[in-house]
Amino acid sequence: MSTLEEHVDINVPIDTAWDSLHQVENYPRFMQGVREARTETGGRAHLDVETGGPTRELEAEVSDRDRDRVMTWQTKGTPHLEGTLSFQSIDRNNTRVQARVEYEPDAVRESFGGPKGFAQANAIERVVRGDLEQFKDYVERER
């Protein structure tokens, strides 16, 4: 299992950033490859994801520690991905969002294609970093 950690600072209060994360239908606006997203019952989200091949459907179980501003998630099926998104107040008007993603590189490559080894890790890092930057732009613009 490989682990990736990235963060981004957003120029909005923590409540604004936290609330924006919970608007699942807007995930296509800031998550690369997500074509459609919706909330389902039982703390699940459904994502239609396209990564250069056919569109794949992913189901994710999501849980919040609302008081701590931490969301944990894990996909069901293959590939198995899991992670956390933590929100920390920097000051009244600024928030740090920390993403931690755990994944099995071979399972990701088999499911979505792409190179092996170091190149695969770099691709995943670029996607996570890009999604965080897109989330920052989305939240600051929608504020």
TrEMBL record:
Residues 40-49, 56-66 have a biased composition (Basic and acidic residues). This is SRPBCC family protein. Pfam families: Polyketide_cyc2 (PF10604). SUPFAM superfamilies: Bet v1-like (SSF55961). PANTHER family: POLYKETIDE CYCLASE/DEHYDRASE AND LIPID TRANSPORT SUPERFAMILY PROTEIN, POLYKETIDE CYCLASE_DEHYDRASE AND LIPID TRANSPORT SUPERFAMILY PROTEIN. Residues 40-66 are annotated as: Disordered. It comes from Streptomyces macrolidinus. The lineage of its organism: Bacteria, Bacillati, Actinomycetota, Actinomycetes, Kitasatosporales. InterPro entries: ORF3, Polyketide_cyclase/dehydratase, START-like_dom_sf. It comes from the Bacteria.
